[in-house]
From TrEMBL:
Protein name: Phospholipid/glycerol acyltransferase domain-containing protein
Domain Phospholipid/glycerol acyltransferase: 97-220
One cellular component term from this protein's GO annotations in UniProt: membrane
Keyword annotations of the record: Membrane, Transmembrane, Transmembrane helix
InterPro entries cross-referenced by the UniProt entry: Plipid/glycerol_acylTrfase
Molecular function, one GO term: acyltransferase activity
Disordered as annotated region, ranges: 286-308
Record's keyword annotation contains ATP-binding: no
Residue ranges of the TM segments: 26-58
């Protein structure tokens, strides 16, 4: 009867002539970083589902917790838990910070417009930190396809994510809320290079701001594209697929632990003589100056791990 040691020796004796172990080891070392860059985005997806799972558990036990809560909002405690999870992830992995928080009105409404990264983790961190520091919810507009993803509906209910029309956005702003919109949307997320804005003629945010007469505040996150990227290989194919389906097909890789800082710009206040086109141009010019100032100038800076 063969012992374990004899079996191992038998395998070695019969494979050593057929397998180049040195080459296999070299190949493993070469491919590991590539595999990791595609696995790290999965962590974000898992974190989203962890958030959804937390909310489902909370919803299941709402009857028991109801008497312990003094607020009428059933999502209040759950929202705090989800915000703490994302705030902790941002601080640990990216040393996430907000610069210019004083530009955000403490009590009044504001329309926040932001650049859409390949994976918009910066807005998750931003929502969490603003909620924990200001105790105010930042309502957000998301693409319609997200609402068809299992588990997203409960996240949208709790975190106040909406598909968004000009009318619904204007109504939220008139009620005194914060509202965040990425004018470039999923198109910008997939195909923007070097932080170029891809707003086309999307004027919905400008129309909502002018109708509600609220300030427009640009926010931009430093190193967002250095944390997560989309593949350039097959770009034309992904663009055609997006044109046909309006769904994102470009693969995302990354998850690099770069330092992230969200810069809140100075408000663009309501002017009655501004047209939606003028407001869009005015807002985009703020981003041009911001991106030139806060993007790395050489690739050596891209993967600098943040100091904690």
């Amino acid at each position: 009867m063969l012992t374990i040691n004899q079996f191992i020796q038998f395998i070695k004796d019969n494979t050593i002539d057929y397998v180049d172990f040195d080459y296999s080891l070299w190949l493993t070392w070469c491919l590991t970083p590539l595999v990791v860059t595609f696995l790290l985005p999965v962590v974000i997806a898992l974190l989203l589902y962890l958030s959804a799972f937390t909310l489902y558990i909370y919803k299941l036990h709402w009857g028991r917790l109801r008497t312990a809560l003094i607020t009428g909002d059933k999502w209040e405690a759950a929202r705090k838990v989800v915000a703490i999870i994302w705030d902790a992830h941002g601080w640990i992995w990216h040393g996430y910070e907000i610069s210019g928080l004083e530009n955000l009105p403490v009590n009044g409404p504001a329309l926040l417009i932001y650049y859409h990264g390949a994976m918009p983790v910066d807005i998750y961190y931003f929502l969490a930190k603003v909620y924990l520091s200001r105790n105010r919810i930042v309502h957000t507009v998301a693409d319609h396809f997200l609402f068809k993803i299992p588990g997203f509906s409960i996240l949208s209910d709790c975190m106040r994510v909406i598909p968004g029309t000009v009318q619904s956005c204007s109504k939220l702003l008139k009620e005194g809320n914060y509202l965040a919109i990425a004018p470039g949307g999923v198109y910008e997320a997939q195909f923007s290079l070097n932080y170029s804005l891809m707003w086309k003629r999307r004027l919905g945010f400008a129309k909502a701001a002018l109708e509600s007469k609220v300030p427009v505040i640009p926010i931009f996150t430093e190193n967002l594209r250095e944390a997560f990227r989309t593949m350039h290989l097959g770009r034309r194919l992904f663009l055609k697929l997006y044109t046909w389906t309006k769904l994102p097909f470009a693969p995302i890789y990354g998850g690099f632990p770069v330092k992230m800082v969200t810069h809140i710009g100075r408000p663009i206040y309501y002017e009655p003589d501004l047209s939606p086109e003028d407001l869009q141009m005015k807002a985009s010019s703020r981003f041009t100056g911001r991106t030139d100032q806060d993007t790395p100038k050489d690739t050596g800076q891209y993967f600098t791990i943040h100091s904690r």
